[in-house]
Write a structure and sequence with these properties.
Blueprint (H helix, E strand, L loop, with lengths): L9 E2 L5 E12 L8 E15 L4 E5 L13 H13 L6 E7 L9 H16 L6 H12 L3 H8 L2 E6 L4 E6 L5 E8 L5 H6 L7 H20 L5 H4 L6 H4 L6 H7 L7 E4 L6 E6 L5 H14 L4 E6 L7 E3 L8 H5 L6
Parallel strand pairs: 4-5
Antiparallel strand pairs: 1-2, 2-3, 2-12, 3-5, 3-6, 6-7, 8-10, 8-11, 9-10
Helix pairs in contact: 1-2, 2-3, 2-4, 3-4
Bound molecules: L-homoserine.
Amino acid sequence: MSLPGSGSGHASVSGSPKVYVKVPASTANLGPGFDALGMALNLYAWIEMGIAPATEIRLYGDQMSGVPTDKSNLIYKVAQQVFDKAGVSHPELDIAMYSDIPLTRGLGSSASAIVGALVAANALIGNKLSSHELFQMASALEKHPDNVSASLFGGLTVAFWDGERAEHLRIVPDDRLDILVAIPRFELATEKARHVLPEQVPMKDAVFNIGHASLLVAAFCTGRYDMIRHAMKDAIHQPYRAPLIPGMTDILQRAEEHGALGVALSGAGPTLLALVNRKEGRGAELERFLLDTLRGQGIEADTMWLQVSAEGATVLTHFDPGVSLIDNVKGNVRT
Ligand code: HSE
């Protein structure tokens, strides 16, 4: 996360300070790292926040329909938590958000809204809270640290949250890594996808996941991408979620035959995510396999080629407070 110095809000046309934050989407779990591994993706949301005489919330982008624009809005509520913790009061806010991140598809849209709101509200009050404090708040809000750590810090994050404390370390995979996502055209609420999980798992499945998640992290740290196909396997959440995503089991079993380094359900789904070595050049074949397999089960999907976003949530200093957020964002999409 890059934060500006204290009091760096830009003046708007009306003279009140405004801040702008760019925050990445994320994938969570990467197969075995349930609630522990996250990776920031170069698909973004932008938030503008300022102190205002009366609250106004403007949401832009196809992903925003149905999101509330009153004080029940998540961004507004999270901003108020920052102010409460910092001991300041700003009950009326002017907020705008533009997002390219699909909602409820397993690409961390709620985590990016939470992280974007935390970072924007904190910047608005001169960064009174540390990034560690923001991470604690984000993890407590989401109840798992994987998506929020990736959106906040960028790169591939390894994190825990024990109900009281969150800690993380960040790795940036080297630039051979491409990420192909197949986003089914249906929504799957995280709550529903967590509800199908058992309260307890057999010891052998826990041991399976500890070994595989640890090997996956070591594969990224050492650049041993040949190990990803062995490591990116899970026994504690994907098998239970597979009935919610027709075609998923087939994709998990066969994507490597079509050029994937490894494949997993992205977060709680329904998006499927394949890691690809850019230099191997079998992307078109893999894309066809994912789409055909889902279509064979009656599921239409959209694919997107992404990369790791090494940067997490970033306060932007070049946006112009004299024009709308949309005008500011134009030309910044997917950079
Ligand atoms: N680790 C979480 C899950 C991610 O799999 O439920 C949800 O985005």
